[in-house]
């Protein structure tokens, strides 16, 4: 049956294909170490789970407002004030079923044939997929290893044309772990004054995951662009709640009702128990979050230290998130073929760099969301595969 052409342009997130293949191999009896999927290997803290259970027992079984419960939106307001120093109105906060719906909403608002949308490359694959779906032209913003995997404000601004409708940025970043310094973001914001018609989607889902004295700079701290800024955030990474499908976004006045109506048409609302859990996550103790981030800090060092001992592989120390983007150019392998061979022949799941953009060739992504022992064992297997005795 023939569908409209737009569906033929939809891409995928190959990390889920890797997860499925790894699970199949494991079910067949293979010993698999999964450094592929981008989710914390910690459980959701117990007090958050209990908040959802209590909500269910209290009868919170019905529809919620399309933009989210007032209490959940107010919790996001409190959290945003704590992390950025900016107090946003609760009626500009949208509670979403994960982070991707914010990408979906923002990109379809601005994407159409003839328009251009700038996105990071390498970057989260859904950016490019959704841009292609709308028929807009996807314009990659190069994210370069020699720049510490931070974006360049000068290079980004040079790519803006009179057809540019939306700029997507992500820091701390997936898949590279790069963190763009505040000085570079300030240059970008100053340069954007020349382009008042360009909206900005700032993906800040890894905002608390920075290391070595780096700090996250939210674009909310620049009042001069708030009237065209969409901020994406959520519960998945910070509170180990990937399967809960809980995200939030902050929208300017002129776009908020559009996304609310889109919610009504697409997903109606976010389920009530998860929203009560979300309030508990924000307002409850953060010691388990701190412990998780400390573990990722230690593991990113372990990953990079071990990889530096593998002939043909190099890896700069990531400054944020929980990924390492390893350079494998000197091995002679293409990225996807190496990632596939590592999984099939050594039982180590990784994701090839081109799954995050054309500039990802020559790299593989390793998630630091695994135990120290598993990380050490996985990299030992990679070394034996690439450099047999």
From TrEMBL:
GO molecular function, a single term: L-aspartate:2-oxoglutarate aminotransferase activity
Any one of the GO BP annotations: amino acid metabolic process
UniProt cross-references to InterPro entries, sorted A to Z: Aminotransferase_I/II_large (IPR004839), AspAT/PAT-like (IPR050596), PyrdxlP-dep_Trfase (IPR015424), PyrdxlP-dep_Trfase_major (IPR015421), PyrdxlP-dep_Trfase_small (IPR015422)
Domain of life per record: Bacteria
Cofactors named for this entry: pyridoxal 5'-phosphate
Enzyme class: transferase
EC numbers on record: 2.6.1.1
Catalytic activity: L-aspartate + 2-oxoglutarate = oxaloacetate + L-glutamate
Aminotransferase class I/classII large domain location: 31-382
Coiled coil start-end: none
Key words, A-Z: Aminotransferase, Pyridoxal phosphate, Transferase
Similarity annotation: Belongs to the class-I pyridoxal-phosphate-dependent aminotransferase family.
Protein known as: aspartate transaminase
């Amino acid at each position: 049956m023939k569908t409209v052409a737009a569906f033929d342009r939809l891409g995928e997130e190959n990390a889920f294909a890797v997860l499925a293949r790894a699970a199949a191999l494991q079910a067949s009896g293979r010993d698999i170490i999964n450094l592929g999927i981008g989710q914390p290997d910690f459980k959701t803290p117990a007090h958050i789970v209990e908040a959802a259970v209590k909500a269910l027992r209290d009868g919170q079984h019905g529809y919620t407002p399309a933009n989210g419960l007032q209490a959940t939106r107010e919790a996001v307001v409190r959290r945003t004030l704590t992390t950025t120093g900016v107090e946003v109105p609760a009626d500009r906060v949208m509670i979403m079923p994960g982070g991707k719906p914010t990408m979906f909403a923002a990109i379809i608002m601005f994407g159409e044939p003839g328009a251009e949308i700038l996105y990071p490359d390498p970057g989260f694959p859904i950016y490019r997929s959704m841009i292609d779906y709308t028929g807009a032209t996807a314009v990659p913003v190069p994210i370069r290893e020699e720049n510490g995997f931070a974006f360049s404000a000068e290079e980004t601004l040079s790519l803006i044309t009179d057809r540019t409708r939306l700029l997507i940025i992500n820091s701390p970043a997936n898949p590279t772990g790069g963190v763009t310094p505040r000085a570079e973001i300030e240059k970008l914001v100053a340069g954007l004054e020349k382009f008042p018609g360009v909206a900005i989607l700032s993906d800040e889902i890894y905002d608390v995951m920075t290391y070595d004295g780096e700090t996250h700079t939210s674009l909310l701290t620049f009042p001069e662009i708030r009237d065209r800024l969409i901020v994406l955030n959520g519960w998945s990474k910070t509170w180990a709640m990937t399967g809960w499908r809980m995200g939030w976004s902050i929208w300017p006045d002129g776009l908020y009702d559009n996304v609310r109506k889109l919610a009504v048409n697409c997903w109606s609302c976010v389920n009530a128990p998860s929203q009560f859990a979300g309030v508990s996550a924000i307002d409850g103790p953060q010691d388990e979050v701190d412990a998780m981030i400390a573990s990722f800090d230690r593991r990113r060092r372990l990953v990079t230290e071990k990889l530096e001992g593998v002939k043909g592989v190099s890896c700069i120390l990531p400054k944020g998130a929980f990924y390492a983007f390893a350079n494998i150019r000197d091995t002679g392998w293409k990225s996807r073929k190496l990632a596939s061979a590592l999984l099939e022949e050594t039982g180590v799941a990784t994701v090839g760099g081109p799954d995050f953009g054309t500039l990802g060739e020559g790299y593989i992504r390793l998630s630091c969301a695994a135990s120290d022992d598993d990380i050490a064992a996985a990299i030992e297997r990679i070394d034996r595969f690439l450099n047999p005795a």
